[in-house]
Amino acid sequence: MTGVVKDTTFIVIPAFNEERAIGAVVAELKALWPHVIVVDDGSRDETASVARQSGATVLRHAVNRGQGAALQTGITHALRRGAQIVVTFDSDGQHRAEDVATLVAPIEEGRADVVLGSRFLGSTENMSALRGLLLRAATAFTRMTSGARVTDAHNGLRAFTRAAASRLEIRLDRMAHASEIVDQVAVHGARCVEVPVHVRYTDYSKRKGQTGLGAFRVLLDYLWGRWLR
Amino acid sequence: MTTFQISAFVFLGLALAATISFRLRRQASFRVAFAWSLLWIGAAVAIAWPQITVRVAHVLGIARGADLVFYLAILGMFVGFFAVYVRFRRMESEMTRIVRELALRNPKEPDPE
After folding, report:
1. What is the pLDDT of residues A108-142, one digit of tens each?
2. How close A63 gets to chain B, by Cα (Å)?
3. N or C: which end of chain A has fewer CB within 10 A?
4. Nearest CB to B108: which of A57, A65, A73?
């Protein structure tokens, strides 16, 4: 990893009521990468101050707008700061900081414009059978609707070149943005590769994650965005 | 004239007056005011001469005039819900744009160690 890549890579973390986990997530990333942006999505706890103390630049949504909205805010800010590579990362501690290098590598080598982390090519820790099933169903759906051959469509760990990030326009504010991103990447004809990453589920991240019913709402939101907007 | 007809005319008359007053104060677009006025006048006509609804119902293959009115009311409600939902979604995305703009104007740099 060259110094130039490190200096121009910005990591965007959308966070909502994440004061318990965000400090460790930011500290772990800051040890390896200089630019970490946390978008505090209208948290009612100390997420913003914990993130700043841990070394992140913090943008704050005055009211909660959803993960998709927060990602777009962070990506826009990163681009304004001159990012050449934008990485998205989850706030609940389920991703590992060392995987960012794996994600950035195909871009640095000029092989890809968009890199998606896949837990199904990589590995997981403590993932429930139901969660696995739900994620596979969501991925099958995304493959069908976007035509993109992905193995894990709903993984928050992604990397974009500046050009690819500039063309993103996340309009689905809540959780359906994951499918939306894959759709847009497919439409824009960006070169997309998947790399194996590790996802660790903790009781904490499970509690913060989607439930089966939530997944149904995500589906409705996505369909709305795709056909009725 | 039945008691029902009298009270309905009073209500519909007030509704029409309110609609016209909204329009005159430029608080409603012409299209919206016109659509609401049509609704109030249509309802008044149907209540004054119920046999008209029966005749229209028969043309459409519906047995009773009251059924026709009922179906139209349900249909109108769905259209209304949908219009409100579309507007709600638009407002949500406008709100996101405002919230984003505010956030982008005021980035907080990391606390010095």
Report:
1. 999 999 999 998 898 888 888 888 888 888 888 88
2. 7
3. C
4. A57
CB contact B74 to A (< 8 Å): no
Of the candidates B95, B96, B110, which has its C-beta nearest A52's C-beta?
A: B110
The answer to whether A184 and A169 are in contact (CB under 8 A) is: yes
Show me where the domains of chain B are located. 3-105
The chain A residue lying nearest B109, using CA atoms, is A57
Contact with chain A for residue B104, Cβ under 8 A:
yes
Question: Residue A212's pLDDT is what?
Answer: 63
Q: How much is the average pLDDT of A50-66?
A: 96
| Interface ipTM | 0.86
Domains, in order of start, for chain A: 3-224 (3.90.550.10)
Task: Name which of A42, A62, A173 is nearest B92 (Cβ-Cβ).
Answer: A173
